[in-house]
Structure formats: structure tokens, C-alpha cells
From TrEMBL, chains A, B:
Free-text remark on how the cofactor is bound: Binds 1 Mg(2+) ion per subunit. Can also utilize other divalent metal cations, such as Ca(2+), Mn(2+) and Co(2+).
Protein's name in the database: transketolase
Binding site for substrate: 102, 339, 433, 460, 538, 546, 550, 597
Enzyme class (EC, first level): transferase
Catalytic activity: D-sedoheptulose 7-phosphate + D-glyceraldehyde 3-phosphate = aldehydo-D-ribose 5-phosphate + D-xylulose 5-phosphate
Keywords associated with the record: Magnesium, Metal-binding, Thiamine pyrophosphate, Transferase
């Protein structure tokens, strides 16, 4: 692609500014920074009272302090400067207009944003979903106006001028943090810090995997980069560290992270809480590390660094780019004051003066418009060239092309459901984690991009696909992912995989209780409408001796409360297959499968179809929809309800047993159907579940009884725990007898 | 203290084995390890079929592979060897007896465990709560039999032989993972990986803080170390990374972490997922790093490393100790097979033969018993010497001694509650986060060890204590803790602070939605009965434009379902003060305070006393406990219930308004009290809360209506969101009219 570059920095400065990080260099280079001495606040002097020349001097002093380089006078106006300032002011103006938002990051990152989108990222603005586009993630999601401004300049229909003007307003396409489901061109949903870089790891993993499987010596049909901008906040988050450790381990050479090193977070200078040597850490994680010291104007250095990063094929690259948050704001730059609030009219005015920007709000100069306008035809060309390439590929490699196409479109192979195991009534029972393993392995046969793994519990979660090896640096074509003990990173990486293209279906596994470690990622799955399958075994006190640290109690309730999650707790083989069916078919929501460590029998009356309704009658000896009592259960406790029903029926009672495998799906059924399962008039209802009773009033009503566990568990063999904690058929019988 | 050491390694080997880590050294030294080639499994040959000499050869081969050192033949039997083998076999036998547990870590870590407890850790076994003891945390909690065996040898009453024999059984003091509330001598509850090392950071922070405040040039009254054993699993967890980054930043010189580098996790060789350079990473985090290459027999090296670590005062130390998991088991050592299952009778037999251990299960040789028996008198002496020191300190520094005593005992200062702000009915309203700030600052005046901070949101959470500075490396006497953007680490560190001694009262703050990042730590607060106060602001869609990534929906429900947590959502000033009162007084449970970003008025009828009951009548114009309708709300929506009641009363209805600020506390009230607030006969009930309706059936009953939000929020100004999502007084009025 053609590019116009600022020539404001000499080549010799360039050579010094783009430096490979060596141990010690970072610290000594950073030492000109004054010692930290407390929270800085924005100057209390009003810009109106100070001549602009003085402001400029003060600003330059700030700059030097922040970026530790010698020349910082705004460069002679050039096209790139104009473009960069356009980005800055689109962000400033949109935040001002909304009187809400985060101007600081876009102002500081505009240069890297410009260089990335204008010169490096492959995209087609008129088809944001073109498969072979480069992926871009703004991990520091609060700076979303950077992304919206770039999408605007690049010609995306989602970010027209009126969209920027309705930034952060009800119904707009430009919400307060990037949301893939609102804004075509945004790949993933970010904002909660650290998630985005982990998503980027997942996106890069997907690319590496698909490239390894589908590329041919004569045709690289899968070939794109994943770029990510992250900030100091992301760097501090454990989830980012987990994912970056894996990215280094996997050698994700096409992952390029741009670290906006601005030394400011909400609490002030990062010196107050973040003094680790980030570059050295990333080297320890197996990354290639580059430091661009002048991220404010150093277009050439940024460009050179990205080029170098692209050339490093065996390692991901972290480009630390030292910038000034709120660059251009004379009184607020380089302070937390510019992070998350509108600048205010006066400071906007001062910033306009400082940056030599005489334009009205939301102005895009003609030369900038013209310059960027080439991306529409260029993007169309990129896609059509790739389409031609794909046509050639298809001719030569029909079978692979068909599979790849199905991954690109997400269309499920005809008849895939037949792979789900079914169980005759006389089948032997087993732990639902074992039955889950059968599903996973059968699905591995029919779903071409079903990939996943466990956070170091594969042998307990039973989550390995036996016919495949491990996805590793040198075996990226394989489909078992080894996440190590990194639950949070695992979830966030799976979100990235799921968002790569519609046919990628990631699953991930750990003990159910450890969803606590990854809950922020699961919530992003739900919010971003990403089909991640969470295979969560050891789902109750039934795990026994490991004790209360390992025994989930409140987790079922906690996910039933979370929007857009399917919480599934199958009772036996047929329900486990049903759970997988539902999980695969629900393309726009994640599923959490709670699975048992311990064996359960196959229960007469369970079915895949039943699971699809979420709640259904498993057995019944009543008539006219008027049982004496309804017994309900989920998972391993459905058996206890069945056993209790058996006893009660012996005593002449009309007893209905209902499985409530997924409350969400049951809630979505028609009123008639719900009434046919839980008739309003039948108030004698007993539920049993080895978990918190919280929420069960919805099912048992005010007169019913919920049997569960409202304290932590304990360390003992599972049968002892069930007895001691009162999760027994006898308890169900006793409760039922009190009610009918 | 006297010590007996194995002399099996020459001094020259010692010199090589205790080496300071330098960049590159770790990798090159590790290179003798064969390239990873997939999951290893235990040998399928039965030990019975193979002569013991061959087993020994095979074992030695495994050893060399794992530890990369030259001589590993079991040393000549010595007292230390005997002690170490006693620890190994107490673990092996207890796991065997329970047929459940984790023998691998205790077998590999017995040497470091022995050296630590026998030679370094200061403790008094007959008073596990002696204030100035060294703290020990087993972060790799699954290896708890190591700790129980050590506590047994050391003379703790919690781990008598019968306790070891009832390992992992119902009602025993030796649960499947270490639990401070079950086993005196265990400092914190571990098992969920990474938590323990973060707790250790909190413990070490508390020591550094108290030492800085109370030590005098002539009297170091607070002076102890924090030791922690962590494994590969802990090292992979993001929470550990977050906490260790802070430990380096804070220069916690008296924190000494022993990293059991055994290269095995549940999924096999760590090569499959964990190839980062851990030592280099810890150097980047500002730690002192030492590598002990022979952790299996190298007592001298371990000892030398700990001594060195103790001498490094300005940095925490990570001692990487290379060990063999399951050391001594001929067929299972150095494989995941020995991690989490009983060895089985045959392998136990082979292990006994290999290690030359002819004894019966649970045998403690007399010389070992005798050697360890000195810890009872020595421990008593340590404590009484310290008591004498304290008496002298008290004479000289009466005021400080009194304060320190109150921190040690946890006794609250008389009249502390008077510091809680109260509000007259005509007081102006404010955001509950602002009212929270008043509470925090008032409590800072009266509670001597009230410490805390925010995960980089201090200016949003309003969590700073204005009269104090920042706890930092060189200002550890200060009380504001700057956690950076590390929610999970923050929570786990606060657990450590809370467990240091009864008077340490930590609070920590972030946005409510980001409890998702730290949920695993909050659960440990609850389980371990630790009074941590979670100050969670921006508690609903009321935060406005930041959008759904930042708007909690399901979080209230998710904590109401979690055992032993107080979930408090105050509505105004009086309720906020009540929430703090309750949080401080509940010494054995954490409190989560959900606080608003937006302003709320002071509501007539709210009270601190009301909060203590969890639910109470705020206003009522009914008589005989028979209102026409009961309106309920929490937090910022109580105002809407009040407004609706006002309108309904104008129309002649008898309306009761109930605040349900804490469901847990309300649930603990007498049946009579509950009936007086929510009479069973009154089924016309409407609730309003800007959150998931999940669980509200408990309060509104089958006939009532719950107004809430069962989808994600959106990005828009708060008033727009309330209107668009139907959280309005009008909605309450309409629902009430349908019911009465």
C-alpha cells in the first residue's frame, strides 16, 4: 500500500528510537523520569489565563518527561499529521459531544492507530466480515473513539459521521466500549481490561491453526495478522499475563501487540503500582520485544517496528510504544485527568490552538478524506483477489476448500447431530463427564473446527479429543489445546477463537468451581454472543474429598442469573447429548455444562428433545395434569427425585418428575408448555439439587420446598456428604409428604 | 536453632547448586531435559515383576531427567533423611488410608518442608495464634499432607496421629485442602491455585506495615517472615502474577517463596503449556531469585538459599527448588500419576523398599520424634521471650502498645461506632459511593488497622483515606494501598491481610461488575471466614455511558447465592453507615457493598438499625400488618418504591415500603420478625431493583412481581437507561395496581 510518512525525524533519531529491548536498557532509559512523588492532578490554572506560548512550553516539558526524547515540536503540517490530528479531534469532539468518554488514549494512540489502519491492516470496509482480513483488537477498550475514528476514516458504514455524533447514546452503533455485536468492524467486545489481548491471542491461534490445516505450498489461503493495542491497565491484569504466556509458548508469530506505554492509569502515574520491567517480562515469556520511544510523532519508528514485528515469524511481538496520554491537551495531557472525562470546552479550545487545528468539531479535512478514500477500492480489491485465490484453491483442493468454506460460513455439516450418542433405556450409566467425553469425541469427527481443551485438568475433565494431537508451536494443525492452569486466559482465548469466524467452535474445561477464575471471560462470551462451550466437571459435593474449596455451591444460581448464558446440568447420557446439541445450535450464546465426577444411572424418560425445552416431564403417573406432587431435580439429583417418586407412587401418590436441565430454555417455552409441565394449581412441589437453593422459588413456588445446600461443603467421601448434607431421596419423600 | 544436615553432597556441588539466576542460565541449564514429546504415563510394568535394583536404576534415570544434577543416590541414613522420609510416608500413608489425596507434592517437597519447619520457621505449636510467629502458606494446597505431617512433627494439637488417620474424612481436622478454620496452624485456606501466594503477599504486607508503625529503634516488636511453597500450577495463574508483581513493587523483603519446580502438572510435563522463563520473569518483577537445583536431597543448598533469602531485605525472594514429584516412588515419580491419587498398595511397598523404610504405616521413628520434640519447649520460649519483649515495649511505649494490642486481639475500640456518620431526615442526598467515602474516612480515624485501597479506581470508588499516604516500599507505615489494575490479586492479598491477625481490617474497591475478576478470592474470604470489606461502586446501569461491559446485572444475585457473604446494597446515607457497621462487626464473614455512582436522596425511614436486620419497613400507611401491597427495593431503587408508594397512597392504598438491603441478614431474623415485615397473607408484592430478577421470587412470592433487568444493559446516559429498561416508579405503580 502506498503511504505518506512524516519526515520530521532524522534517520539517526530513528535508529536510536527503534531499539531492541535489552535487559537494563529499559530501566536506564526510563531513569530521566523524576521520582514518583504522589498523585498528580491537572494544573489548576485555567488555560484561558495563560498565553499559548507558555502552554506550549509547559506541554513540551510534560512531553519530555513522558517520552524521554529530544525533539517534540509538532512537525510541519503534513498529511499524516493531519490524519493523526483528525483522529485526535474526532475523539475529542465525540467525547465532548457526549460529555462522557475517554479522550486520553485516542489522543496518545492516534499515531500508531493511523499507521496501523492506513498502512498495515488488511481490510475491506464494505465487508467487515471478509474472512482473510487482519484482525484488530483494542484491548484498552475505553479508548474506543480511536477505533471508531479509524473505522470512520477507513470507510466503514458502521461509523459514519452521525454515528460518531451519537457516541455513547441509546441505540447508537458507537457504544462506550467496543462491542462486536453493535459495530461491524469491531472484532471483539472489550473494556474489562486484559480481555482484549487474550482475545487477540485466540484470534491469532485460530489463524495459525487454520493456516496450518489449509494452506498449501502453492497457496496461502489463510494468511492474516492479528494486531492489538493494549495499555498499562491491560498489562497489569492477570488474564493478560496468562494469555501472553501461552502466546509465547505457542510462538504466535502473527500476533503483534502495540503497548501504549503512557505511564498513566486512573490512579495517576503507574509508578505507584506498576514498576515491573514489562519488556524483560515479555522476553521471559518468549516474545520479541521492540521499544519505540516516541509514539507521539514517531511515525517512521512505529512503521519500522511493525515491519520488524511482521518479519519475526516464530514469536509474537510486543512493541512498547511510549506515548503521552491526551497528547495535545496543554493542561491535561500526561495526567489521569485526560483519561476518562471530556476535556471541557476551554481545554478543547486550548488543544485546538496547540495542535493548530482551526476546524469545527467533527471536521475531516479534504486531503485526509481523499487519502483514506482509497481504502474502499483497495479493500474491495483485496477481497476480490482473495476470492480469486480461493477459486483457484477450490479447483485444486476441492475437499479442503469445502471444509474451509464451512468454517468460514459456520454452516454445520448436514446430519452432524447423528454423531451425538444416544442411549437406550437399559444402557449402563456413567459419570456425565464420561458421557461428555463421548460427545466431544464424536463431535470432533463431524465438526471441522471444533477445538478446545482444559486448564490442566484434561484427565479429570475428560476433555481430550483422542484422534487429535496437541496444538503446539510446531503442530498448530492439531486441535487439543493445552491451556495450563490458566482458567481466565483460557476463557478469554476461547472468546477470541469463537469470534475469528462463525465455524470455529471452541470448548474449554475445568472444574465447575473454577468458573470463578474465568467469570469475567464467560460474561464476555455471553455479552459478545460468542458460542463458547464451557465443559465444567466436578459439579457438586459429589466430587467428595477435595472439599469445600473445590465444591461448587452457588455456581448454578450465579450462571442462571447471568444474561444470555445457557446453564445446562444434564442428568445422564441422553441429557448430556442434548446439552451438546443445544450448545452447538445456539450460535449466539455460550453454554456452561455442569457435569458430574460421579456415576449416574441412565434415567428412563430423559431425552435430547427434552433438553431442548429446558424442563420436561421425565415420568408421571398422574392424569389431567393434576399430580399430587411434582418432584424436580437436575443433574445427578434427578435420580433422587426419581427414586423418591418411586416410593411415593408405591404409597398411591400421583407423582410427576420433572427435569430442569436448563432454566433459560424452559423460560423461553410458551406459557402453555410451561403450564403443561408445572401447572399453576399444583403447589405441592419439591426440588432437589446439590447446590444453593437460591432461585428455586421460581420453580417450587411459595408453597413448595427446595432441598439444597446453603452452606459450603466439606471434605469427605461423596456418599457421606450427600447423607450428612441431607441430599437424599428420603429428604424428598419427607418434604413431599408434608405437602400432599 | 541446632540443625543436622545431610552430608551427601560435596561443597563444590553445593557451590554449583545454589546459584543466582542470571538471564540465559536457566534455559541452558535446563537444556539437558529431553524435548517434550507428549503426555507421559506411569510405567505399565508392575513393580512386583521388576527387581528392586532395576527399579532404582530407572528411578535414577527419571531423577536425572527431572533435576538435571549428577548424584542422586539416597544418602546414608541420617536423622534428616529419617525426618524427611517420615514426612513422605505420613503423606503416603494418609493418602493411602483415605484412598484419596495428593502424595506427589509432599514426597517431593519433604526436604524443603523439613528444613523450613525444623530450622527456620518461628512458631509455638501450643499456641498457633501467637502473634509474632512466622507465617507459612502452602499455596499448592493439594499437597496439604505435607503441612499436616509437619504440624504433626512440630507438635501441633490439630494434627495428632489420629487426625492424620482421618485425613479427608467427615468432621476431621485434616481436610482435603488446607483450611484455616478447621486446622489451627494453617494460616489461610488454599487449594484453588495461585491464591496462596497472593495471601502470602498480604501476610507479608501486614507484617511490613505493622513493623513500620510499631517497631522502635530499640525494639523490633513486629518481626517475622512469611514463607510460601508454591508449584507450577500457582505460577501459571494470573492471580499469582498480579500479587507477585505487587510484592516486587512493594519490596516485601520478608516474603520468601519456595517454588516447587517439579516440571509436572496434571496434564503431564509442564513443557506442554508452560515454557516461560520463570526466574527471568521474577527478576523483571523485582524479586531476588535463587535456584536450588537439587531439591530432593540438597538440604544444605536449601538451607543456604533460605539464609540468603532472609538476608535480602529489600526484595522478596523466589527460591526455585527443582524437585521430583513423588520422589521415592519407583514407578510413578516424575509423572502426573503421582500427583493426585493414592499410590496403591504395591507401589507403596516398592516405595518403602526404595527409600529403605521398613516401618508400618504412620510410623514416626523415635529419633525423629525426639529431634522434633524440642519445638514444644522452644516454641514456648520464643513466645515467652516475645511476651517479655512486649512487656518492656509496653512500659516504654504505652500508647503504641495499647494500639498494637488491640490489633493483635481484634478488639474494637470502645465507641468506634460513633464514628459512623448519621444523617438527619433533611440531609441532602448523595451517591452512596460518596457516603461510603465518608464512612471510610471516619473509620480510618478510629480503627487502627483499617487499611485498603482500589484496583486503580480510587478516584471513582472514592476509596482513599485522606489523612494517610500510600503504602509503598519506603512508606510502609501508610494505609492506602494502591493495587493497580489487579482485582484478583487485590482480593487475595486482602484475604492474607485479614488473616494476619484479628485486628487487621482490609477493604478493597473496584467497580461492582469487576467482582467477576476476583470472585475466586471473594469466595475464599467467605469460606475462610475472613472479614474483607469489598467496596464495589458503580453498582448498576446507573453508571450510564460506559455500557454493558461495565454494568452489573447478575452480580447481586450471584453473591446472594454465595454462602457466608453479606451482600449489602444500601439506599442512602444511613443505610451506607449501617452497611459499614455490619461489615465491621461481622468478624467471620466478608461483606460486599454495592454502591452507586449516581446521587440518591436521603430516604425518610432508613436507619442503621434497619440494616442490621437486613430487611425492614421504611414507611407504611397500613394497619394490622395488612397492607394492600408491599413495595420492595434496594439501593438506588428504593427511592422508586417510595415514590410509587406516595402515588398509590394518594389513591387510597395502604402501602408498605420495605428495604431489603441484605437478604442474608433478613434471612437470619426470627420468623416473627420476618412475618412482621413480609406477612405471608399479603401476596400483593412488587420489587424493583436495577438488576437481574433472579431470586426475587423468594421475596415477592408466586403472586408477586419483580421488576428488574434480565438482559445486558447498554451504553447511554443513566436516566435514559432507567426509562428504556423500565426501571421506573411508573412500572412499580402499574404492577401494584395489577395486584391490588
Amino acid at each position: 500500500m502506498a503511504s505518506t510518512s512524516s519526515l520530521s525525524l532524522s534517520n539517526s533519531l530513528l535508529a536510536r528510537s527503534v531499539s531492541h529491548h535489552r535487559p537494563g536498557l529499559c530501566l536506564s532509559a526510563a531513569s530521566p523520569l523524576p521520582t514518583f512523588s504522589g498523585l498528580k492532578s491537572a494544573s489548576s490554572s485555567s488555560p484561558a489565563q495563560i498565553p499559548i506560548a507558555a502552554l506550549r512550553r509547559r506541554f513540551l516539558q510534560r512531553q519530555i518527561r513522558a517520552a524521554a526524547i529530544e525533539t517534540l515540536a509538532p512537525a510541519e503540517t503534513s498529511l499524516v499529521d493531519n490524519s493523526v490530528n483528525t483522529i485526535r479531534f474526532l475523539a475529542v469532539d465525540a467525547v465532548e459531544n457526549a460529555n462522557s468518554g475517554h479522550p486520553g488514549l485516542p489522543m496518545g494512540c492516534a499515531p500508531m492507530g493511523h499507521v496501523l489502519y492506513d498502512e498495515f491492516i488488511k481490510f475491506n470496509p464494505k465487508n467487515p466480515y471478509w474472512f482473510n482480513r487482519d484482525r484488530f483488537v483494542l484491548s484498552a477498550g475505553h479508548g474506543c473513539m480511536l477505533q471508531y475514528a479509524l473505522l470512520h476514516l477507513a470507510g466503514y458504514d458502521s461509523c459514519k459521521l452521525e454515528d460518531l455524533k451519537s457516541f455513547r447514546q441509546w441505540g447508537s452503533k458507537t457504544p462506550g466500549h467496543p462491542e462486536n455485536f453493535e459495530t461491524p468492524g469491531v472484532e471483539v467486545t472489550t473494556g474489562p481490561l486484559g480481555q482484549g489481548i487474550a482475545n487477540a491471542v485466540g484470534l491469532a491461534l485460530a489463524e495459525k491453526h487454520l493456516a496450518a490445516r489449509f494452506n498449501k505450498p502453492d497457496c496461502e489461503i489463510v494468511d492474516h495478522y492479528t494486531y492489538c493495542i493494549l495499555g498499562d491497565g491491560c498489562q497489569m491484569e492477570g488474564v493478560a499475563h496468562e494469555a501472553c504466556s501461552l502466546a509465547g509458548h505457542w510462538g504466535l508469530g502473527k500476533l503483534i501487540a502495540l503497548y501504549d506505554d503512557n505511564h498513566i492509569s486512573i490512579d495517576g502515574d503507574t509508578e505507584i503500582a506498576f514498576t515491573e520491567d514489562v519488556s524483560k517480562r515479555f522476553e521471559a515469556l518468549g516474545w520479541h520485544v521492540i521499544w519505540v520511544k516516541n509514539g507521539n510523532n514517531g511515525y517512521d519508528e512505529i512503521r519500522a517496528a511493525i515491519k520488524e514485528a511482521k518479519s519475526v515469524k516464530d514469536k509474537p511481538t510486543m512493541i512498547k510504544i511510549t506515548t503521552t496520554i491526551g497528547y495535545g491537551s496543554p493542561n491535561k495531557s500526561n495526567s489521569y485527568a485526560v483519561h476518562g472525562s471530556a476535556l471541557g470546552a476551554k481545554e478543547v479550545d486550548a488543544t485546538r490552538k496547540f495542535l493548530g487545528w482551526p476546524h469545527e468539531p467533527f471536521h475531516v479535512p479534504d486531503d485526509v478524506k481523499k487519502h483514506w478514500s482509497r481504502h474502499i477500492p483497495e479493500g474491495a480489491s483485496l477481497e476480490s483477489e482473495w476470492n480469486e485465490k480461493f477459486a483457484a484453491y477450490e479447483q485444486k483442493y476441492k475437499e479442503e476448500a469445502d471444509v474451509l468454506k464451512s468454517i468460514i460460513t459456520g454452516e454445520l455439516p448436514a446430519g452432524w447431530e447423528k454423531a451425538l450418542p444416544t442411549y437406550a433405556p437399559d444402557s449402563p450409566g456413567d459419570a456425565t463427564r464420561v458421557l461428555s467425553q463421548q460427545n466431544i469425541n464424536n463431535l470432533a469427527d463431524v465438526l471441522p473446527a471444533f477445538v478446545g481443551g482444559s486448564a490442566d485438568l484434561a484427565s479429570s475433565n475428560l476433555s481430550l479429543m483422542k484422534k487429535f494431537g496437541n496444538f503446539q508451536k510446531n503442530t498448530p494443525e492439531e486441535r487439543n489445546i493445552r491451556f495450563g492452569v490458566r482458567e481466565h486466559g483460557m476463557g478469554a482465548i476461547c472468546n477470541g477463537i469463537a469470534r475469528h469466524c462463525p465455524g470455529m467452535i471452541p470448548y474449554c474445561a475445568t472444574f465447575f468451581v473454577f468458573t470463578d477464575y474465568m467469570r469475567a471471560a464467560i460474561r464476555i462470551s455471553a455479552l459478545s454472543q460468542s458460542r463458547v462451550i464451557y465443559v465444567m466437571t466436578h459439579d457438586s459435593i459429589g466430587l467428595g474429598e477435595d472439599g469445600p474449596t473445590h465444591q461448587p455451591i452457588e455456581h448454578l444460581a450465579s450462571f442462571r442469573a447471568m444474561p444470555n448464558v445457557l446453564m445446562l446440568r444434564p442428568a445422564d447420557g441422553n441429557e448430556t447429548s442434548g446439552a451438546y446439541r443445544v450448545a452447538i445450535l445456539n450460535k449466539k450464546r455460550p453454554s456452561v455444562l455442569a457435569l458430574s465426577r460421579q456415576k449416574v444411572p441412565l434415567i428412563a424418560g430423559t431425552s435430547i428433545e427434552g433438553v431442548e425445552k429446558g424442563g420436561y416431564i421425565v415420568s408421571d403417573n398422574s392424569s389431567d395434569n393434576k399430580p399430587d406432587v411434582i418432584l424436580m431435580g437436575t443433574g445427578t439429583e434427578l435420580e433422587l427425585a426419581v427414586e423418591a417418586a418411586h416410593e411415593l407412587r408405591k404409597e398411591g401418590k400421583a407423582v410427576r418428575v420433572v427435569s430442569l436441565v436448563s432454566w433459560e430454555l424452559f423460560g423461553e417455552q410458551s406459557a402453555e408448555y410451561k403450564e403443561s409441565v408445572l401447572p399453576e394449581d399444583v403447589t405441592a412441589r419439591v426440588s432437589i439439587e446439590a447446590a444453593s437453593t437460591f432461585g428455586w422459588e421460581r420453580m417450587v413456588g411459595s408453597k413448595g420446598k427446595a432441598i439444597g445446600i446453603d452452606s459450603f461443603g466439606a471434605s469427605a467421601p461423596a456418599p457421606v456428604l450427600y447423607k450428612e448434607l441431607g441430599i437424599t431421596a428420603q429428604a424428598v419423600i419427607a418434604a413431599a409428604k408434608e405437602l400432599c
